[in-house]
Every structure is written in structure tokens, then in C-alpha cells.
Amino acid sequence: MDVIDLRSDTLTQPTEEMRQAMANAEVGDDVYGEDPTVNKLQERAAEMLGKEAGLLMASGTMSNLVAALTYCHRGDEIVMGDQAHMFWNEAGGASALAGAQIRLIPNDDQGRIDPADLEAAIRPPGNVHASPTTLVCLENTHNRCSGGVLTPEDTAKIGQVAHAAGASVHLDGARIFNAAVALEVPVKELVKDVDDVSFCLSKALSCPVGSVLCGTRDFIDRANKWRKMVGGGMRQAGVLAAAGLVALDSMIDRLADDHANARRLAQGLANIDGLTVDPDSIHTNIVIFEVDPSLGPSAKLIGALGAEDVKVSSPSPTAIRMVTHRHISSDDVEETLSRTSKAVRALR
Ligand code: TLP
Fold first, then answer.
1. Is 5 domain-assigned?
2. Tens digits of per-residue pLDDT, 61-92?
3. Is the pTM value of this prediction over 0.90?
4. What is the domain extent for residue 322?
5. Cis omega (within 30 of 0) on the bond before 12?
6. Strands (E), 46-127
């Protein structure tokens, strides 16, 4: 029985074309700004996102952290959704290293935050008692909200409120191309109202390593210093950037297949007694479903799925996450559904 690994789209392996491009990449010392392949990737990424400049990062976590370091002084406040990856899964970097206090406001089931909540939460500078809100962070697609998608209008509303109050907006767009494909809008439209955006090459786009932070020239110049400080100056990083260029050319359109597979997966899961998910709420490649307490905590079902050679991850003690990606075919989806039914039956 083949293992079906749905833990994350980060598991995707580089394509043969990427490996060739990596082997043949023209390289230089990127800390001197002299790696031609890194420079090409950064320019290409910035151009695609409609920003002035880009900066290659080792990871999405580093990219989000460097954004926080670039905007915030110690004691500033960052407002974000209560399901934000930056809050849950980045080891508290924005607090520990940028010295920022995190203020959470509710995310809805698609990962949106309410502009009215944001307006009420933002604290302008000038009050000696308060931690001033320097930064607002959005996430698109939204990992913990089942890959939910923010439309250009959702983002514009948040941009308006934040900017009117003098705060900047950072977008954790780790999977921004999934959002663009799902909404069938140019990616530029999705990021035009944020000050900067980070996207990951190493998730569904199949690169082995890397994220790109994009923003104004001035922001990127300042971010470059912070990237160096946190150890992200990577020298002949063109070998990584080469894969990134292949990804931007050839890995975006195929994301629609992952989305169709995720939707089908959700439809099948919804038909299994004891599992709850609304297939209509699945727009990209992340399916999160609730496990009925009668089956025990989600860890029990994860164990039973493991026995069926299906690997998944767990966002909470009552939920399971399955992520579709380039190595998951439509047959794998059907096979996952039959193994999941079996695993659920084993718990009854
Ligand atoms: N997400 C990973 C895990 O950390 C949960 C995953 O498997 O989904 N922003 C978002 C929205 C992310 O989903 C992730 C990774 C990151 C940032 C961090 O990226 P990396 O892993 O490159 O540091």
C-alpha cells in the first residue's frame, strides 16, 4: 500500500526542470547583490506582484519576521487575526525578536478580519500608556481557516482602515498564488492594497527552499539589513532562485488541479459519518474537518489513518488537516476517502 502524504504542500519535491535549472544556475555572492539568478527572481517576483522590489528569504517564517523587524520598534503593537500563522506557528518571533506585542482580533471562517474590529483595535501613537499599532498583518490564503481566500475588496477595506490610522499592512501571502488561481484574478490585484507581501516558493509551487518578500524599494533596502542580521544572507543562493524562476513560469496554473482535488476530498469526507466539513467552503488546497467527539480526540483518528498509511496533520485536538499538492492525484483522493472510511469504522 502506498503512503498518501497529505500533511502539507511543503512536501512537494522539485521537478526535473528545477533540478536542471539549479545545476546550471549562474551564481554570485548575493550578500554583495551580485547573484544574477537571485536578482532575476527578485525582479520577476516584484514585477508579478506589482511591487518595486523583492528579497529572497530562506523561509516564510523568516520573511514574516523580517517584515515585523522592518516596521516595528520595541513595544509597538501588531494587530492580526486570531488564527494567523504568524501567531500560531512562528515560534513567537515577532514578539521575541521584533519586540512587538501581538493583538488578536477574530478571523472568520475564511480568514477575514472585520474592518470595524480592526478600527476599534488600532491604537494611534501619542498616548504614553498605549502600545502604538505600527502594523496590521493579513494572511491569504488562510492556513488555519481551511485555505480561505481574501478577495481584493476584503484586502482593500483593511488597507483603508490601517492606512487611515497610520499603520502599515503586511500580507503573509505564503499561498497567494493559490488565492489568485481560485479567484481567477491577477495576483497583483490581491496585493495592491498592502504595503508588502511575502510568498512561499517552497509550498505548492514545489521549490525545495525559499520565499520572496516584495514591497517598495525603500522597504526592501531596510529589510535587507534585517535579513542579514537574522542570518539570511545566503551567498550563492542562485541555485535556489533558479528553481523559483521555474516555479513562477510553470507551477502556478496547475494549482487549480490541487483545488479541484481538495474540493472532491471535502465532498467525500462530508459523507463519512462522524466527520464534519462544508465542501462549499473549500476554495484552495487545504481541507480542515472536525472529528465528532464520539470518535475520540482527533489524535485517535490520526493514529488510525496512520495505520492505513494516510499521513495528515492536526490543527487542533478536534480537527484534522489534509492538504492536496502536486504529488496527490485524483486517484489518491479516492483512495484517501476509502482508507478514511475504514479508519473511522475501526474507531467505532
Ligand atoms: N505553514 C506550514 C506549517 O508551519 C504549518 C504548513 O505546513 O502549512 N505562512 C503560512 C500561511 C504558512 O502556512 C507557513 C507554513 C508559513 C507562513 C511559514 O513558512 P515556512 O515553513 O517556509 O517557514
1. no
2. 999 999 999 999 999 999 999 999 999 999 99
3. yes
4. 254-346
5. no
6. 53-57, 77-81, 101-105
